[in-house]
Amino acid sequence: MPPLRTALLQSSGRLGDTAANLKALDEAAARAAQGGAGLLVTSEMFLTGYALDVRDIAALAEPADGMSARAIGEIARRHGVAVLYGYPERAGSAVFNAAQLIGPEGAPLANYRKTHLFGSFEQEAFTPGDTSVVQADLNGLRVGIMICYDVEFPENVRAHALAGTDLLLVPTAQMHPFQFVAEQLVPVRAFENQMYIAYVNRTGPEGEFEFVGLSCLASPDGVTRTRAGRGEELVFGEADPELLAASRETNPYLRDRRPGLYASLV
C-alpha cells in the first residue's frame, strides 16, 4: 500500500469571509494535487476564521451538508484530493466547532464536533460534541479526527489508538504561549499511541490571539516528518503504512497495557 501524501495548509484565511476562504482552499487544493497529495488538511475554523464575535459565529454557521460543504465537495472532486476543513456547524439551535472530511470524489466521509472546548470564548460560542472517536477509511488508512485542545487529553488519543486509527487529523488554533504542544506534545502522542498525527495550525495575529504556526506531521516512531514555520505555508508529508506496521511491531505500549489498573481514570 503506497504512502498517503498529505498537504498541511497553515493559514488563517480571511476573518469572517467564507467566500474568500473557499477561494483560498480551492487554490491550495490545486497546489496540493500538483504536489502529489491525496489529502489536504486545513486549520481549526478555517472556513470562517476563529476570533469572531459569538453572534458572528452563529450567523456564519452552516449545516454539515450546507452550501460550503457542497462547494468543498466540488473542490475535492475537481482536484482529486480529499479535504479536511474546520468550520462552525449549525445543527438545530446548537453551534458546534466542527471539522468535516470530504473524499476525493466529493462525498462527505466523516464529520466531527470538538468535545473539549478551550476557555470562556469557546464555551460561550459552541456546544461541546459528545462523540470522541470519529473515523473514516481513506486510501487504505483508518483516519480519525480531533480538533485542537482535544489532542491534549491523553485519554482521547488513546481511545483512537484502541479503535485502530492510523492517521489522526487535528486542525488547530494553537496560540502563544502554548507552542510546546506543537513542538513536543504532538510527536509524543504519535509515539505513545503508534499513529501518524497531522496537526495543522492557524498563523499570525487574529483578534486577541497570536497563533504560532508550527504545523507538523508526526509519525509513530516519534519523528516529526514535516514542520511548517510561523507564516502562511503549505507543507507536505507522507503517512506510510509500512513504517506504521514496522513501528507497531517493535513498540509494545499498546500490547503491554494493563487496563484493569486504570479503572480509577473513569
Mind explaining what this structure looks like?
The protein is of the alpha/beta class and 266 residues long. It has seven helices and 14 strands. It has helices at 18-34, 54-60, 67-79, 119-125, 154-162, 180-193, 241-250, and strands spanning 4-10, 39-41, 82-91, 94-102, 108-113, 135-138, 141-145, 167-171, 196-200, 203-206, 209-212, 216-218, 224-227, 233-239. The strands form three sheets. It has a six-stranded mixed β-sheet. A six-stranded mixed β-sheet has the order 6-7-8-9-12-13, covered by helices on one side. Strand 3 (82-91) and strand 4 form a beta hairpin. The protein is globular. The protein starts with a strand and ends in a 16-residue tail after the last helix. The mean pLDDT is 97.
Keywords:
266 residues; alpha/beta; 6-stranded mixed sheet; 7 helices; globular
Helix content: 25-40%
Structural class: alpha/beta
User: How many helical stretches?
Assistant: 7
Task: Name the overall outline.
Answer: globular
Give the neighbour order of strands across the main sheet. Answer: 5-4-3-2-1-14
Mean pLDDT: 97
What is the chain-wise order of helices and strands? EHEHHEEEHEEHEHEEEEEEH
Radius of gyration: 17 Å
User: Distance N terminus to C terminus?
Assistant: 38 Å
Strand content: 25-35%
Main sheet record: 6 strands, mixed
- Provide the low-confidence segments as ranges: none
- The overall strand count is 14
